[in-house]
Amino acid sequence: MKVTRREFAKSAMSAAAWSAAPSIAHATQPRFFPTGFLWGAATAGHQIEGNDINSDFWLLENIKPTMFSEPVLDGCNSFELWAGDLDLARRIGLNTYRFSLEWSRIEPEPGLFSMAMLDHYKAIVEGCHTRGLKPVVTFSHWTMPLWFAERGNWTNPDSPALFARFCGRAARHLGDGIERALTLNEPNGLVMEKSSLPESVMRAQATMFAEANRVTGSTDFVGGPAFAEAEQMQPNLLKGHRDASSAIRAERSLLPVGFSLAIVDEQAAGEDTAMRDTARERFYGPWLNTAKQDDYIGIQNYTRRRWDAKGALSAPAGARLDQIGNEFYPASLANCARYVHKVTGRPVLVTEHGIANEDDLPRAELIPAALTHLQEAIAEGVPVLGYIHWSLLDNFEWARGYVPKYGLASVDRSTFRRTLKPSATVLGEIAKRNSF
Ligand code: BGC
């Protein structure tokens, strides 16, 4: 591990010095997380595997015009190097690894399932167990098989049944060893992101899809970040989640199933909460409602957003911003956990939380500060099952390419060598002790 004692001491000191976490410095008793708490790091297939050439994103990244700043190409070469990734998670001191299945590899043509690819993901599940890692498996983390995109993606009325068929098949093959299943990653995300995008993005997307139709010879191509279709896809995504959950449970009745919600800590800037409440209802309402029938809910939070009577405000003057403009705000995660549990009554699993930063120190500050707040929420009675950090590796960050750095480990882009950062030690020490 390339973390010197001095680096660790430095990051731990600045973590303790962070003003939002005075309780770390003043704590005299170790403060424990619940027994069995999941401590993990997350990845997603397309962002690390490389060469998933049968997926909608692969196509969109490689046509012209494209909305992507660069193509994923080899990713972190994790399709080959996955065992080393698991070793890394273990070396950090984690007990959980979240990864996703690439549907486009498992079902490259409609109804044709690849045994070799199912076995590939089964080996990862088993590899987790041999290393004492609990596998949390996302059945779909945004990428879709090309054939699914050519048929309109989630705008297609058949999409819920097609997704449920895939999930059932994959659960039959892998389900025994999975700790927790997530059907969809952030199915509410596009609606939320679209709300702050200019109309020009919809036009750029239409041009990109026209080219995708041309090269695939289809007429209904919808793929990648389909902002223009975001609202139209919601009913099918909701049904897709419900049908997929039933298909997974039909194969593995004891496997806990949920989905992961993209959530910002929405705050009212003054007395008037109307705009904040409307945003909450629009971005999260239908999904929180559906989660009431699930075993648990995954939450993925990166920051807060403030609302006044006119709309969303930008970050306060002087706020610290990360590489993609998110405000550094460690309390947001616990606030989201409180809100989501209050509305759904379900246990909450943090399936993503992190920060985009070239310099690792803010990550080493954020982790203990956010966990201090999370522990307060747990003490208040919010059932939190675990904390899974985004991400294990610096990876392909979708339209932004490889620029934003979220990893607990950096990755050399030509040798694929992984190097742990000091923040990995910060998280690992807390995980190993299950306390501060
Ligand atoms: C997504 C990840 C993404 C992360 C950071 C989440 O919305 O699930 O795939 O990389 O945010 O941008």
Secondary structure layout:
Blueprint: H1 5-17, H2 22-26, E1 38-42, H3 45-48, H4 56-62, H5 78-92, E2 96-100, H6 103-106, H7 115-130, E3 134-140, H8 146-150, H9 159-174, E4 180-185, H10 189-194, H11 199-216, H12 230-251, E5 257-262, E6 265-268, H13 274-291, E7 297-301, E8 304-307, H14 332-344, E9 348-353, H15 361-380, E10 384-390, E11 409-411, E12 418-420, H16 422-433
Parallel strand pairs: 1-2, 1-10, 2-3, 3-4, 4-5, 5-7, 6-8, 7-9, 9-10
Antiparallel strand pairs: 11-12
Helix pairs in contact: 1-15, 1-16, 9-12, 14-15, 15-16
This protein binds beta-D-glucopyranose (BGC).
Beta-D-glucopyranose binds next to loops.
The succession of helices and strands, N to C, reads HHEHHHEHHEHHEHHHEEHEEHEHEEEH
Largest sheet: 8 strands, parallel, barrel
Shape: globular
The count of domains is: 1
Q: What ions, cofactors and ligands are bound?
A: beta-D-glucopyranose
What low-confidence regions span 5 or more consecutive residues with pLDDT below 50? 1-27
CATH homologous superfamily placement: Glycosidases
- What top-tier CATH class fits best? Alpha Beta
**What is the annotated CATH architecture?**
Alpha-Beta Barrel
Overall radius of gyration = 21 Å
Number of H/I helices: 16
Query: What is the number of beta strands?
Result: 12
State the end-to-end CA separation.
22 Å
Query: What is CATH's topology name?
Result: TIM Barrel
What average pLDDT do the residues reach? 94
- State which percent range the strand residues make up: 5-15%
Class inferred from helices and paired strands? alpha/beta
